[in-house]
Amino acid sequence: MASAYRNFAPVDIMTMPKKQLKKLWLRFAFPLTDGKPYCPKCGSLRCTKIKTRKQYNCTDCGRRYSNTSGTIFAYRKLTIRKILFAVAKFQSQQFGLSAGDFAEEVGISYRTAWVLAHKLRQLMAFARRNDKITEDVAVDGAYFGGVFRRQNIRKGKDAQKKDRRLKRYRDEKRKKCVVAIKHRSSNTAILAKEFESESAAVRWVQSKVPMNATVYTDQGPWNDIGITHEHRTINHRYAFKLGDCDTNTVESFFSSLRRQEKIHACISRNYFQAYVDEQVWRRSACIYATSFDRFSKLAECIGGFVPDMRGYWQHGGAA
Ligand SMILES: [Zn+2]
User: Fold this and answer.
1) What is the dihedral of CA 20, 24, 29, 31, to 10 degrees?
2) What is the pLDDT along the chain (319 residues), one digit of tens a residue?
3) Euclidean distance between CA atoms 177 and 144, whole angstroms
4) How far does the centroid of ligand 1 lie from the alpha carbon of residue 319, in Å?
């Protein structure tokens, strides 16, 4: 939060002159050609402008396109200003923004906010798609969801005897296991994925961590990692850190996930991985030198891929 870092805030989008805003949008939507629109069908830069419609006609294939074609905001209804404000606002939060709050901030309906937030989560996952583990890591799993509400009666014969919030009483069908690999010394690389259980993730961990790196875990079902990698464990019953052996960095990633869980009143299990991806991006965002860097590196991905989100109801199936 040094003053040199704070060179941009979401509110700057709202006060930006129209010309500058358009330039910024074109830079984000077409980063490969430095802001010059090209045909989404054939990639040609040759076009004629259609003055009356703010569109272009491709000289080579005849496709008609606009400044948003080929981006995740194609077929938009919101103004460019509102879209950029929404992107800036969403990425500026430390742990996340619920769809309800997002709708309030941007002035859109809950459903629009929900879909927009999910598009941005996919953008975040896309922005960090090339992250690779290069050094020593801490690995751990954590369980989310599947908690039964405690009964309201505390004493007497009707009282609930067991604390159903505990891990062993969680609903097998509803609970989610997230396994994360994180650099021990920094936030530069975090890989996190949903699995059936911790033991189902061993092979994934082995494939992602380079052979010369040491893997630090707790005493979970991680012993097979020792076959391929140098493996050190810490007994959490006894201590959380002994000498230089600990898994604290990856535990702190899970603590951000739990804080995110509280921000959203409810996280659908069909989209759980999207929230994990979001938190990976947010934790890694400290690598950017300035707040504008953080915003622009994310926004530059809007032209890169087709999102799975098709709308609030997903037209018959979750992506
Ligand atoms: Zn074309």
Assistant:
1) 120
2) 688 888 899 999 999 999 999 999 999 998 888 888 889 889 899 999 998 988 999 999 999 999 888 888 888 889 999 999 999 999 999 999 999 999 999 999 999 999 999 999 999 999 999 999 999 999 999 998 887 777 777 787 777 777 776 777 778 788 889 999 999 988 888 999 999 889 999 999 999 999 999 999 999 899 999 999 999 999 988 999 988 899 999 999 999 999 999 999 888 888 899 999 999 999 998 888 899 999 999 999 988 777 777 677 665 555 4
3) 6
4) 29
User: How far apart are the CA of 46 and the centre of ligand 1, in A?
Assistant: 8
CA 93 to ligand 1 center in whole angstroms = 38
Give the Å distance between the CA of 79 and the centre of ligand 1.
25
Q: How far is ligand 1, taken at its centre, from the CA of residue 55, in Å?
A: 13
CA distances from 149 to 42, 163, 165, 171, 287 (A): 55, 9, 7, 11, 39
Q: How much distance in Å is there from the Cα of 48 to the middle of ligand 1?
A: 11
Neighbours of ion ligand 1 (CB under 5 A): 39, 41-42, 44, 58, 60-61, 63
From the CB of residue 300, how many other CB atoms can be counted at a distance below 10 Å?
A: 17
